[in-house]
Amino acid sequence: MENSRERGYDDYRSFSDIWASDDGRSWKKIVDNAPWSARMWPSVIVHKDAIYLFGGFSNRDNINLGDLWTSKDGVSWRQIKRPGGPSPRHYATMFDRQDGFLLVAGNAWPVQNDIWLFRSSASSALDEVLLSFWWWIGGK
């Protein structure tokens, strides 16, 4: 555990390590420090054989995060940067769809009630996300 002071919740610590399990009982740390900043309460989903991580809360800096990252293996991560998109938040809910995934609500102080669609299209030859766009669907 890192000894850096955290400015948010006293009893919590933010991390950027990644763990994997084949059976849900035995776990192995596969990454000590991912390229994204340490956080807690991010939103994570698997879509088209890739992991997506959005936002969360940086307890070290006492702020919500609004970045989006993807990985095919959980070890190598790439940030997806696009203009617009949802406000920084933690505890959002994600739902998988054939054409992308939904990011719903979340806590941005105040709690949000919006819905965003992240559309993706993958090339079977390149096996990577080529186009990624946030579309606001509804809510306030």
Explain how this protein is built.
The chain is mainly beta and 140 residues long. It has a single domain (28-138), classed as Kelch-type beta propeller (Neuraminidase, 6 Propeller). It contains no helices and 10 strands. The strands form 3 sheets. It has a 4-stranded antiparallel beta sheet, with no helix packed on it. The protein has a 4-stranded antiparallel beta sheet with strand order 7-8-9-10, with no helix packed on it. Strand 5 (63-71) and strand 6 form a beta hairpin. It is globular and about 40 Å long. The N and C termini lie far apart (39 Å).
How is this fold's topology laid out?
Layout (H helix, E strand, L loop, with lengths): L17 E3 L7 E4 L11 E5 L2 E9 L4 E9 L6 E3 L12 E5 L2 E8 L3 E12 L6 E10 L2
Antiparallel strand pairs: 1-2, 3-4, 4-5, 5-6, 7-8, 8-9, 9-10
Total count of strands: 10
Structural class: mainly beta
Cα-atom radius of gyration? 16 Å
Q: What is the CATH third-level topology name? A: Neuraminidase
Q: Which regions are unreliable across 5 or more consecutive residues at pLDDT < 50?
A: 123-132
Number of domains: 1
Taking the sheet with the most strands, its summary is: 4 strands, antiparallel
> Helical region count?
0
* Mass-distribution shape: globular
